[in-house]
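If you are new to this repository, start here. Below is one unmodified record pulled from the training split, so you can see the exact layout before writing a loader.
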Amino acid sequence: MTSTTRECTACHTPLPEEAHFCFQCGAGTPTDLGLSPRSTTPRERELARVRTALAGRGYAIERILGEGGMATVYLATDEKHRRQVALKVMRPELR
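And here is the target side for that same chain:
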């Protein structure tokens, strides 16, 4: 087990030294002190793809809650009812 010596600059979650991205919010971590965060991850690209696909359907996708072999579960806001919901989206390669 690695020690946690850093924290996410966005949400302040403790991170192991070798973390490239925050496990909680997905924000990139600086490569070294004073440098900008790393570039986007596949998870960030997936979030962008799902946000685009569900645009105009009444949901604001916030983040990934969990992933499995067949689908990904997202935390979203149901804009009509103003409440948080979980959306399960099947992986595109399984359709």
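Two things worth knowing about this chain: The two ends are 38 Å apart (CA to CA). The first strand starts at residue 4 and ends at 7.
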